[in-house]
Amino acid sequence: MSGFPKEAEALLSVAPADFVTARNRLARELRDAGRNDEADLVIDRMLDISARLADPALHRDALVERAWHDIVLGHTAH
Questions:
Q1: How far is CA 24 from the centre of its chain?
Q2: Going by C-beta distance under 8 Å and a sequence separation of 6 or more, which residues neighbour residue 24?
Q3: pTM score, whole prediction
Q4: Of 58 and 15, which is predicted with more confidence?
Q5: What's residue 50's pLDDT?
Q6: Can you tell me the distance from the alpha carbon of 70 to that of 11, in angstroms, rounded to the nearest whole number?
Q7: What is the rounded distance in angstroms from the CA atom of residue 77 to the CA atom of residue 33?
Q8: How far apart are CA 73 and CA 50, in angstroms?
Q9: pLDDT per residue over 23-73, tens digit each?
């Protein structure tokens, strides 16, 4: 995954039921380390991956998490 932090590759092997939790944990760890741009990339790009998973609830949860992420950061709809 070009441009991703190397830690993000491990998310590809996470069980679908644990994906959102693992993704959020990694994003939080990256933010705690001052790697905010990489954390944003993990959240944004992993939404694409979660959309391809067969679990609609997982994708819905990911979209809700992204919406809260945007609200907290003050991002507005484009």
A1: 6
A2: 65
A3: 0.61
A4: 15
A5: 63
A6: 22
A7: 28
A8: 22
A9: 899 999 999 999 999 998 888 887 766 666 656 676 677 677 777 777 777
Nearest Cα neighbor of 27 from 44, 2, 48 is 44
Higher pLDDT, residue 6 or 1: 6
What whole-number distance in Å separates Cα of residue 65 and Cα of residue 68?
5
Please give the C-alpha separations between residue 57 and each of 40, 46, 54, 60, 64, in angstroms, as whole numbers: 22, 15, 9, 5, 10
| Two tokens, residue 70 | 């945007």
Q: Which residue has the tokens 């092997």?
A: 13
Using the structure block, give the residue that is written with the tokens 């995954």: 1
